[in-house]
Write a structure and sequence with these properties.
455 residues; four-stranded antiparallel sheet; alpha+beta; 13 strands; single chain
């Protein structure tokens, strides 16, 4: 008799499921280099900010003490002003560019002493992951002590975001570099980046290394990469002074994904604060403001999509990409907006739903978007993190069947292709870095639901 099937492929039996979960756990332990867990086997040899948050959440399923260590390691790189850098170089340089020496963070008065880091931030997923680790922890006392220990550091990060990156009090937090978005090559950054125009004499010397381990046609193109480097050169010349960076960075974007992550994190911070008996008024203020600004500024009623806002050139960037659904993840959309996002877009085969052009949910760029490329980094491939956020959002709004379909596709991709950085939506073939930690961490998160009883 044939194994029972769903539209998304064979349902694994219990043994196969256990084996798959074991492979996910082993991927995380194999990438553990002591101080931190590498994001992937070869491509990324340092500790990345939101990777570490996700890794900690994954480790929380089977080794809570190790999970807490991951968070502490990341926080060791926190700057004196609260900024949490996007890379921490615990073990010095490697074959990865940019290495610690490129950043010259010693130019900043806020750089943490005795540790090498980058000078940029990344989407603030950490509070959300810490809260989920806490909800899952069986040793309630140890977990609460840990939350008490890290809470002030998390609060300082969010305070920094809502001040240094929103000095005008718009309600939205700005990013000054595509790398800060965590999704740097996405089409919504093309237009703002095109306005960054370095002359040859302004370009610092550098040697790109990101195509050493991954095919060049899956990585960002040269002209974009030049701009990435040029922007960092500006910032280091300005000593990473937050005021100058906000006022003068040629790239200044109020991003859909970044702000959705920041909003969800505030909800999680408020829950943690309540449990600790800490005040919540400041967090509430940022939350209300962000909610209002997100909908008044980033929602385009005509298209029925959320778009990033280029705050340097005062315009919406009308590119249809998966970041538009992050408003569901964070609960920022109202019922009518959610219906449009799901009905007219997520379920539309010209954009994100499966059809002859794509078998797997959810392509990171709409298929009918000009920049769609099914194998190029953030321009079309399926990412497990994005799928997890989309399915969390769908569940939040009651689209359980569709959430199940996204979960089914994600698991099928990982079961047949392994834990990769991303996958081609046409045939599910894996691409980018192999043995990718956050994919493994999220496999655990998708299959082992949070206990309902706890806060
Ligand atoms: C890439 C991704 C970024 C991630 C990093 C490490 O740069 O765009 O989101 O944090 O790799 O995995």
């Amino acid at each position: 008799m044939e194994a029972p099937t769903t539209v998304d492929g064979p349902i694994p039996d219990a043994t196969e499921l256990q084996d798959f979960l074991e492979r996910a756990r082993r991927t995380l332990t194999a990438n553990d280099v002591g101080e931190f867990v590498k994001p992937g086997l070869h491509q990324y040899p340092h500790q990345w900010n939101w990777d570490a948050a996700l890794v900690a959440m994954g480790l929380g399923h089977f080794d809570p003490e190790r999970a807490r260590k991951e968070v502490r390691s990341l926080l060791r790189g926190q700057w004196l002003d609260g900024m949490l850098p996007h890379v921490v170089y615990h073990n010095g340089s490697s074959d990865y560019f940019p290495g610690p020496e490129f950043w010259q963070i010693e130019q900043s008065v806020a750089a943490p002493p005795g540790i090498h880091t980058s000078g940029l931030v990344q989407p603030p997923l950490l509070a959300t992951c810490v809260r989920r680790m806490h909800r899952r922890a069986s040793d309630r006392e140890a977990s609460l002590a840990f939350v008490r220990e890290v809470y002030p550091r998390l609060l300082r990060l969010h305070r920094w975001l809502h001040h240094a990156r929103d000095p005008e009090g718009t309600g939205l937090v700005a990013i000054v570099h595509p790398w800060e978005s965590g999704t740097d090559n996405a089409a919504r950054f093309v237009q703002p980046l095109m306005q960054v125009t370095p002359s040859a004499s302004q370009m610092p010397a550098y040697q790109r290394r990101d195509s050493d381990h991954v095919a060049a046609d899956e990585r960002p193109v040269h002209a974009d990469y030049e701009r990435f480097v040029y922007l960092i050169d500006r910032f280091r010349r300005w000593g990473y002074d937050a005021e100058t960076m906000y006022a003068r960075s040629p790239f200044l974007v109020q991003d859909t994904l970044f702000n959705a992550v920041a909003y969800q994190a505030l909800e999680d911070m408020i829950a943690l604060a309540d449990e600790l008996g800490e005040p919540t008024a400041e967090l509430e203020r940022w939350r209300v403001r962000l909610h209002r600004a997100y909908n008044s500024k980033l929602w385009d009623d005509e298209e029925g999509l959320y778009f990033a806002y280029d705050a340097r050139h005062h315009q919406l960037v009308r590119e249809n990409g998966v970041a538009t659904f992050m408003a569901l993840y964070a609960g920022l959309a109202d019922r009518a907006q959610a219906e449009v996002l799901v009905g007219a877009h997520l379920e539309n085969p010209d954009e994100y739903a499966p059809d002859a052009r794509s078998r797997f949910r959810v392509p990171s760029q709409a298929k009918n978007n000009y920049f769609y490329e099914p194998r190029r980094y953030w321009r079309g491939p399926v990412w497990i993190l994005v799928n997890w956020m989309v399915l969390e959002g769908l569940e939040r709004y009651g689209y359980h069947d569709l959430a199940e379909a996204v979960r089914g596709d994600s698991l099928e991709l990982m079961r047949s292709g392994g834990f990769f950085e991303y996958y081609d939506p046409r045939d599910g073939s894996p691409a980018g870095a192999s043995d990718f930690s956050w994919s493994a961490a999220l496999a655990l998160e998708m299959l082992e639901p949070l206990p309902l009883a706890l806060s």
